[in-house]
User: Which sequence fits this backbone?
């Protein structure tokens, strides 16, 4: 390293802001290491690309496609490391050009008919979109972001940001428009392209200020489009069946009114009227937005009311729309709306939650926890695969096979360690550094402060458990045999409820002290207690009375995992854990308020 | 008379057995720049924390802009900007990100928010570090980011706890300039140890020691106080004292304790106060020399904030624990000055 000369500071290009000089000029050490990594990455990418292409275009080679993908992926990661570290003009421009090249590749792969290397006469349009078009697009995005962050020349930077906006808007809105016209395209490529477009738009919005001006308008339009799409998908899915059924829907077969069907109908009418009233009272929104929401709410309520009294508004039964098109469109629309709100809302709770979430991603702790949990879940997955292979050699495995997924001890240990690591710093750190004083002297209540910390940590907690679902997708793709995946959904619901309880308790302990270690130890102790309830449930412990044993047994989270993975989601236990979470949230707020009780 | 910007009535605060603030009362009118002085541990920060609603008072009332800090905490917090002593910031955020986040938290309207941030960054001289991580900033920059944060929502009342600590002399000047520009439009309560800063910026000072207000008055009232003459004469001490006291211009005479240098020569020092703030140096010199006594030295000493401060703090230390009820009155208590701290 000592031989590398310090980089000379290049004179800033005309029009650039003056170089940051305070408190003293910093000289980077030579970028030799980063550049070596970058070159190694480039080598890997090219090598992997050659391997893949030769395998695809010619007969399978000695080194297979799998190795090619691995080498290319490693190369891309190494190059990304270099791209984020090295802001030198030549380097960043090269990576900018790489991003553009990937974009061209992605577009090319999407418009070419495939399969490309096949000699068959029948080639279909859009064949390559899903693996290749989307992958190249994503690669283009991840290399464009460091380029934009490092670029100091306004013209290049603005051009790149504008390109991000253009691509993002085209993909996010275009795929939905196509999906509306041809619902078949939505499953698979449509959703993938829409998500990619959303990612481009998010990248755009993080690079411009969304307080006002064009950044805000983009975010606002994204939210408006999302809301409109979700509303339309809901209307398209719900209204035709309701209108076809007419008043019969709320009557018994004998003709009298069925109370249990009438109540949901009245509730849904009330909800839509409520939406209209809320929009009428939201004076801060722009006029046309309020008018549109009021009209939509009143219209929906009127339609439900009309369908309840008048029969035969539509006679022919429409084709079912809800699954999968309606659900996908609603999901995408709500996602757009949520992202837009999260990015540009001025609501205090949203602002605080955004900061808390960002704190996880701006510190190494967040990435360490994600990586650690991914590794731990991978170990659990490996044991699961071993079990599946061992059993299926003898006999076909009983469904649901995922009931065997989490019997190993390793994920339990992961959970025990993860929760204190996430929650210990929440309030304790703010108390110790004194930033709680800055926070609480701003016009903001205790509830949003605690609630935002809670929500952000819970979201992050759920994010760390996403890999275990992804591994199952890998199993499905690699194994080629369909299996019942739905118990995973109930597992996630159970995990979400437990997350409420654990994060809530961790937050409470963090609120009680200004020492992070104490908070972590207390949280860990409570987690161990929850773990012990599993033993209490299944082993008679002499000094525990039977009633207490039954009660404690209800708190066993491992038992809940087993039940939910077996497809038997215990709703009662979900409610128990959720209420523990809400109660500890309440206590945390009271503890924070208690400094004012004198 | 308009509502006082800050009104503190018989405020007390104890942390367990420790009485941090003891029956403090003062008022600040809108637009006033008030220096809040006192030694370490005098209760300045505690008073400020009560005023910013972060801590409750043990007894007494405090109003900011007419709102009670205990029961109308939200209204108070919407109207104050607070710079805490240690300026805690989130180390992982960037300067512009942090200010933008705080602006949203303080409901600075969306329209014009960018321009507001830009203007503040220029005024607090942090524009050049806008993209730096807060954790990498030096103390001076942290102070100025905190000041920008306090001024974000253009609050009518600013409460600044040692805004200049950790700054270099140039930065201190610039920061004080920024604070002085705020006067008139904003009410500023500013705590510090450094008296010369207060003299530069503030119109009024409140000196607090051991949790009690010891002095509350304008700087003008201190400098307009009767000047004292220091007279050193060689001669019979009692006779000289009688002679000085008998002069028509003189209000009071006190004998200064003899130092080794003066005692050896038979020189006695006197502190002489005149009526109506006259400068009687030449008169006294002529009359003393006419009596045949040797005049060693004659000087005029005008009262300064530093004297006042030293006096208040030292007297308190000497008089402990006997509390002086007269001292908490909002006007200056003029008493014969204590011997200069040697």
Assistant:
């Amino acid at each position: 390293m000592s031989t590398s000369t310090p980089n000379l500071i290049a004179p800033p290009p005309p029009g650039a802001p003056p170089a940051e000089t305070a408190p003293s000029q910093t000289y980077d050490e030579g970028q030799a290491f980063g550049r070596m990594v970058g070159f190694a990455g480039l080598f890997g990418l090219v090598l992997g690309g050659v391997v893949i292409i030769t395998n695809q275009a010619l007969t399978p080679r000695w080194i297979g496609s799998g190795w090619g993908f691995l080498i290319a992926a490693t190369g891309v990661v190494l190059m990304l490391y270099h791209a984020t570290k090295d802001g030198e003009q030549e380097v960043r421009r090269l990576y900018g050009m790489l991003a553009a090249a990937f974009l061209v590749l992605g577009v090319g792969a999407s418009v070419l008919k495939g399969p490309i290397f096949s000699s068959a006469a029948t080639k279909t349009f859009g064949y390559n979109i899903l693996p290749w078009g989307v992958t190249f697009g994503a690669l283009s995005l991840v290399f464009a972001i460091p380029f934009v962050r490092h670029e100091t020349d306004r013209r290049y930077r603005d051009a790149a940001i504008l390109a991000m906006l253009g691509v993002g808007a085209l993909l996010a809105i275009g795929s939905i428009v196509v999906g509306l016209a041809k619902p078949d395209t939505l499953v698979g490529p449509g959703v993938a392209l829409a998500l990619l477009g959303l990612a481009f738009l998010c990248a755009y919005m993080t690079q411009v200020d969304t307080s006002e001006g064009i950044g805000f308008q983009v975010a606002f339009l994204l939210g408006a489009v999302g809301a409109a799409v979700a509303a339309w998908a809901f209307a398209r899915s719900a209204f035709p069946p309701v209108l076809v059924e007419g008043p019969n829907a709320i009557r018994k077969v004998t003709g009298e009114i069925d109370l249990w069907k009438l109540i949901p109908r009245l509730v849904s009418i009330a909800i839509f009227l409520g939406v209209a009233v809320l929009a009428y009272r939201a004076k801060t929104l722009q006029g046309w937005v309020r008018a549109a929401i009021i009209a939509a709410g009143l219209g929906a309520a009127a339609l439900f009311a009309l369908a309840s009294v008048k029969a035969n508004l539509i006679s022919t039964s429409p084709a079912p729309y809800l699954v999968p098109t309606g659900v996908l469109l609603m999901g995408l629309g709500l996602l757009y709306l949520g992202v837009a709100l999260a990015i540009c809302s001025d609501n205090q709770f949203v602002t605080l939650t955004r900061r808390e979430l960002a704190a996880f991603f701006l510190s190494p702790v967040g990435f360490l926890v994600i990586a650690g949990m991914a590794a731990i879940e991978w170990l659990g997955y490996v044991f699961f695969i071993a079990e599946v292979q061992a059993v299926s050699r003898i006999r076909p495995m009983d469904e649901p096979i995922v009931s065997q997924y989490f019997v190993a001890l390793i994920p339990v240990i992961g959970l025990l360690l993860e929760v204190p690591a996430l929650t210990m710093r929440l309030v304790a750190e703010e108390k110790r550094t004194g930033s709680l004083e800055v926070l609480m002297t701003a016009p903001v209540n205790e509830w949003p402060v605690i609630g935002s910390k809670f929500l952000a940590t819970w979201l992050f907690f759920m994010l760390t458990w996403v890999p275990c679902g992804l591994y199952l997708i890998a199993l499905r793709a690699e194994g080629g045999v369909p299996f019942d995946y739905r118990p995973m959904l109930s597992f996630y619901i159970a995990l979400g409820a437990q997350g409420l309880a654990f994060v809530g308790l961790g937050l409470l302990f963090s609120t009680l002290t200004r020492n992070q270690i104490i908070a972590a130890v207390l949280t860990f102790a409570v987690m161990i207690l929850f773990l012990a309830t599993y033993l209490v449930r299944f082993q008679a412990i002499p000094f525990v009375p039977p009633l207490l044993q039954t009660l404690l047994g209800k708190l066993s989270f491992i038992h809940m995992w087993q039940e939910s993975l077996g497809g038997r989601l215990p709703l009662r236990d979900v409610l128990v854990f959720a209420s523990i979470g809400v109660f500890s949230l309440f206590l945390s707020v009271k503890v924070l308020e208690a400094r004012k009780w004198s | 008379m308009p509502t006082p910007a800050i009104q503190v009535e018989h405020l007390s605060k104890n942390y367990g057995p420790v009485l941090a603030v003891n029956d403090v009362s003062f008022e600040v009118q809108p637009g006033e720049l008030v220096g809040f002085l006192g030694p370490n541990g005098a209760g300045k920060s505690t008073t400020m924390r009560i005023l910013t609603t972060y801590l409750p008072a043990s007894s007494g009332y405090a109003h900011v802009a007419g709102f009670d800090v205990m029961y109308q905490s939200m209204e108070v917090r919407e109207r104050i900007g607070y710079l805490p002593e240690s300026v805690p910031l989130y180390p992982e955020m960037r300067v512009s990100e942090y200010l933008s986040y705080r602006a949203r938290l303080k409901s600075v309207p969306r329209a014009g928010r960018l321009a507001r941030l830009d203007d503040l960054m220029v005024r607090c001289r942090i524009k050049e570090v806008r993209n730096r991580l807060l954790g990498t900033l030096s103390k001076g920059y942290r102070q100025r980011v905190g000041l920008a944060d306090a001024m974000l929502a253009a609050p009518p009342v600013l409460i600044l706890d040692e805004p200049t600590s950790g700054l270099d002399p140039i930065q201190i000047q610039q920061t004080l300039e920024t604070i002085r520009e705020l006067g008139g439009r904003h009410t500023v309560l500013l705590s510090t140890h450094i008296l010369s800063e207060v003299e530069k910026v503030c119109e009024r000072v409140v000196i607090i020691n051991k949790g009690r207000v010891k002095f509350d008055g304008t700087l003008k009232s201190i400098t307009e106080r009767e000047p004292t003459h220091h007279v050193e004469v060689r001669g019979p001490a009692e006779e000289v004292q009688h002679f000085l006291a008998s002069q028509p211009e003189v209000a009071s005479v006190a004998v200064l304790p003899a130092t080794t240098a003066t005692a050896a020569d038979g020189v006695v020092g006197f502190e002489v106060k005149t009526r109506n703030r006259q400068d009687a140096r030449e008169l006294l010199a002529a009359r003393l020399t006419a009596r045949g006594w040797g005049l060693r030295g004659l000087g005029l000493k005008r009262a300064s904030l530093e004297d006042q401060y030293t006096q208040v703090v030292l007297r308190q230390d000497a008089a402990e624990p006997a509390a002086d009820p007269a001292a908490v009155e909002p006007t200056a208590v003029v008493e014969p000055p204590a011997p200069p701290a040697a």
Summary: Residues 320-342 of chain B have pLDDT under 50 and may be disordered. Chain B is about 35% helix and 25% strand. The interface with chain A takes residues 49, 52-58, 70, 73-74, 77-78, 80, 82, 84, 86, 88-90, 92-93, 100-107, 110-114, 128-129, 131-132, 138, 140-141, 149 of chain B (CB under 8 Å). The CA atoms of residues 75 and 123 of chain B lie 27 Å apart.
